[in-house]
TrEMBL record:
InterPro entries: Spore_coat_component, Spore_coat_U/FanG. Residues 1-20 form the signal peptide. PROSITE patterns: PROKAR_LIPOPROTEIN. It comes from Pseudomonas pergaminensis. The lineage of its organism: Bacteria, Pseudomonadati, Pseudomonadota, Gammaproteobacteria, Pseudomonadales. Keywords: Capsid protein, Signal, Virion. Residues 17-155, 180-318 form the Spore coat protein U/FanG domain. Coiled coil: none annotated. This is Spore coat protein U domain-containing protein.
Amino acid sequence: MRGLGWLSVVGIVFSGQAMAACSVVTTLPASFGSISSMTVRTAAQATSTANSGLSCTSALISLLVSSDHFYATITSSKTGMVGPTGDVIGYTIYANNSTSFPITRGAQFDFGGAGGIAQSIGLIAGPGSKTVPLYVSSITGSNVAAGLYTETLNIAWNWNYCSGIGIGGVCLGRDIGSGTAALTVSMTVTNDCQITAPNISFGSAPVISGFTTVTGQASISCTKGSAYSVGLSDGQNSVSAGGRRRMISGSNYLAYDIFKSAGTTRWGSVGAARRDSSTAEVNPGNGLGTGSQVFNYNARVYSDQTTPPAGTYLDNVVLDVGF
């Protein structure tokens, strides 16, 4: 007889984790939105894009090492966002939401490596696909005309990293690739003005004939290149639109008016009663952005009225700028 024995058959499968893969995809624009020209000049503005062109799927690994790299080189034919008149708004590009990681145009910036930005945003650590964000901040001091400002950045991506880990931490392969994405950065600059208009005081007098003419000026600084007009409302107590302005004290009135320059033409709020920027006594023409235009006026109490009872007479007039 022959004896029978058992032969065990064992199969061992070495399974690696999922392999990552990166590719260049269409970017999402970075838009500052609409910002007034005065704010553009005096305060830095910030915006970002959630997708600057590099997209990677998960490798289900937790750490990148110093030999893993995700390089971006940003170039452009311009030096910033360019507007309709050729004005330029400069800005700085950052690799994360911090001024600690500025990106220099034309220089290779590495998002990878151990402890790099790629690690912090979970670029290949999952779950799902991830894209690389970019952050931009405008540079103050730009005196620019209103309009749409844009720039297209070319972002050359190059990557080389371990795309999958096997048993014992063995790298199963490296994902190596490159590609170029185009990213649009934009800002819409709107017209704005800064107005300085001191109060008008006629002082005091016992009778109407005792009030003298008061002269003054309104200083206005408006967006570079903007054509505008300046109007004065009829005040709070005029009898009719375009009629005499009146100060009030209790139930009593003191009629007065404000006239253009040194003349007798009433300065009003509608049509030809307004003043165009081209008629300014100082710096006539379109807005300067960083300089003021001065509009002179004279104000007089009407002499053909009966002297009202004693009191403090007041009115409020609105100065408006229209583009």
